[in-house]
Amino acid sequence: KAAADKVKNDLIQKGFSNVFSYQCDITKKDEVKRVAAETRKDLGDINFLFNNAGVLIGKDILDLSEQEIRRTMEVNTISQFWTIQEFLPSMLQKNYGHIVNTASMAGKVTVAWLSDYCASKFAVVGLSDSLRMDIDRRGKDVKVTAVCPFFVNTPLVSNTTAHCQPYSRFDKFLEADEVAKAI
């Protein structure tokens, strides 16, 4: 909550208005539903959905606990089903919108000691491709983009992948502002 409030306050100081901060465990469908309702109440239907939550454990598959595997899949993949189900219907009704799902190059090319992460990001790529086809079959003009950057220099990546780096196919970390501008 503190991090979200800090971003909210930073945006307000930069002159943005109508900035809201919500707290939600995205792995819980009922919480996503509650926050989606609050968002619609405060802002109306949204036109752009950015699914960008993620966790990265960074362990050998034999060292991953059941809880760690489930957490990775729930945060990185399953939560996107919940947000899409909440926000896509109004986009389809208006025939306008864009869903951006953050995957990773680890969703296209595997990395040692990131089996859970790679599996979750491969799933996001597949979800995005299938969703795009579902929308096309409906004859609607809602866009879907799967973003697949190399590793981005954030605490999520730099704190957990240092020991994986010699085994990674990814040589250079990207900076967050580079990725944001590309999106």
Condensed summary:
49% of the residues lie in helices and 9% in strands. The chain has helices at 2-13, 29-43, 66-94, 115-137, 155-158, 176-182; strands at 48-51, 97-102, 142-147.
Task: Considering the chains and any ligands shown, give keywords for the structure.
3-stranded parallel sheet; 9% strand; mainly alpha; 3 strands; 183 residues; 49% helix; 6 helices
Estimate percent helicity: 40-55%
Q: Total number of β-strand segments?
A: 3
Let me know the largest β-sheet. Answer: 3 strands, parallel
| Spatial ordering of strands, largest sheet | 1-2-3
Mean pLDDT: 89
Rounded Rg: 17 Å
Overall structural class, as computed from helix and strand content, comes to mainly alpha
The global form is globular
**Topology order in helix (H) and strand (E) letters:** HHEHEHEHH
Unreliable sequence segments? none
**Approximately what portion of the residues adopt beta-strand conformation?**
5-15%
Number of helices: 6
Distance, first to last CA: 25 Å
Provide structural commentary.
This protein is mainly alpha-helical. The protein has helices at 2-13, 29-43, 66-94, 115-137, 155-158, 176-182; strands spanning 48-51, 97-102, 142-147. It has a three-stranded parallel beta sheet with strand order 1-2-3, with helices on one face. Strand 1, helix 3 (66-94) and strand 2 form a beta-alpha-beta unit. Helix 2 packs parallel to helix 3 (66-94) and helix 3 packs parallel to helix 4. The model has no long low-confidence stretch (mean pLDDT 89).
